[in-house]
Amino acid sequence: MQMDFYLEQFWKLLSAAPITLLLSVTAMFFGMIIAMFCALVLIYKIPVIRRWVTLYLSVMRGTPLLVHLFIAYYGIPKLVDAIAEATGLPLSVNGVHPIVFAIIALSLERSAYLTEAIRSALLSVPKGQMEAAYSVGMTTSEAYLRVVFPQAFVVAIPNLGNLFLGGVKGSSLASVVAVVEMMNMANIEATDSYRFMEIYAIVSLIYWGMCIAFEQLFARMEKRMGHFRKSLR
């Protein structure tokens, strides 16, 4: 029966959802770490490093994610081999799972867009907050961790949510480097069954459902933390 086929394919595609979520969450996590560094460099206008950060952001924003994935997948092994040959060190990436290269590429790509979201959120925190933190004996790092970052996070939630949803959909490109996430699973099943339209429709519904769920999650986070945001105005 048609319904049996649809249900079977739905569960097969859904079985690859954890890989899609792993790619999305880890790319967001590492991307935010890189973006925080880049944002602070831009805010404090650190000489020399600022130019490199600006160049990095321009390159990452101005080139397709697909290119980043291919460079990571094919370029990193060659780079490691070249370093091993030049230094004599026993370095090798043979046996490294393709998902590692996908996470590297996705993290770098996400960081380029997260940088602006984090920078604008940090600048929205009044300078008086830092002065108040210094007045009670906090160091700069303590002031950022305890005062600035928590307030900036509240302001950044809408942008972070949009960027995360973009990352969920962007993770589908990891299929080109042999990562079996939902899109790759859909390609495999469609090729085997020759039911391309039905299977791509099913995987589209799963992506849509995931994005709706995360939209609701970020909306609740924004609403729950709204009273902190009011205090910044």
TrEMBL record:
Belongs to the binding-protein-dependent transport system permease family. PANTHER family: L-CYSTINE TRANSPORT SYSTEM PERMEASE PROTEIN TCYL, MEMBRANE COMPONENT OF AMINO ACID ABC TRANSPORTER. GO terms for biological process: amino acid transport. It is a multi-pass membrane protein. One of its GO terms (cellular component) is ATP-binding cassette (ABC) transporter complex. Coiled coil: none annotated. Residues 17-218 form the ABC transmembrane type-1 domain. Its main location: membrane. Keywords: Amino-acid transport, Cell membrane, Membrane, Transmembrane, Transmembrane helix, Transport. It is found in: Cell membrane. SUPFAM superfamilies: MetI-like. It holds the Pfam family BPD_transp_1. This is Amino acid ABC transporter permease. The keyword Transmembrane applies. Gene3D superfamilies: MetI-like.
